[in-house]
Amino acid sequence: MNAYSSAASAYREASLESAPPLKVVHMMYEGAIKFLGQAQELEPGDPNFGRLLNRADAIVSELQLSLDPEQAPELAGKLTSLYLFVANQIMEALLERTAEPIPAAREVLQTLLDGWKKLEVDLGVSE
Questions:
Q1: pLDDT one-digit tens code per residue, 20-65
Q2: All structural domains of the chain with their residue ranges
Q3: DSSP assignment of 19-39
Q4: Contact status, residue 87 vs residue 61, Cβ threshold 8 Å
Q5: Are 119 and 125 in contact (CB under 8 A)?
């Protein structure tokens, strides 16, 4: 790793550690959407196709693991269903080596991100 990428990585890590929780969620959605978009642009035979899909899937898994059903059981249930749908779309893309399922996964994540952004504005924590 060169000095530039090492510094960039340290900056990203510090930004994430000091960000408010809603901002972290926002950043996670953006990351998953970005990785899915990058994978969608590649040929499924490209070695980065699977790597990018796996990165997006890891983020979606973390989002799902962060849910607290005791705090909001109905919301957690609905988000779990959406995250499982996205994870299934990613898995299908990986197994079938096709980008076809990716747009549906991105659309769900973008809709959720838009909702989180609105919540940030409503709570006065937006940038």
A1: 788 889 899 999 999 999 999 999 889 999 999 999 999 999 999 9
A2: 21-123
A3: S-HHHHHHHHHHHHHHHHHHH
A4: yes
A5: no
**Token pair 């490209």 in the structure block, residue:** 46
Look up tokens 């709570």; give the residue: 123
How far the first Cα of the chain sits from its last, in Å, is 31
96: pLDDT strictly greater than 90: yes
Q: Residue 125 pLDDT more than 80?
A: no
Helix (H/G/I), strand (E/B), else coil: 42 = coil
Cite the DSSP H helix spans in 19-125: 21-41, 47-65, 73-96, 102-123
CATH of domain 21-123: 1.20.120.340
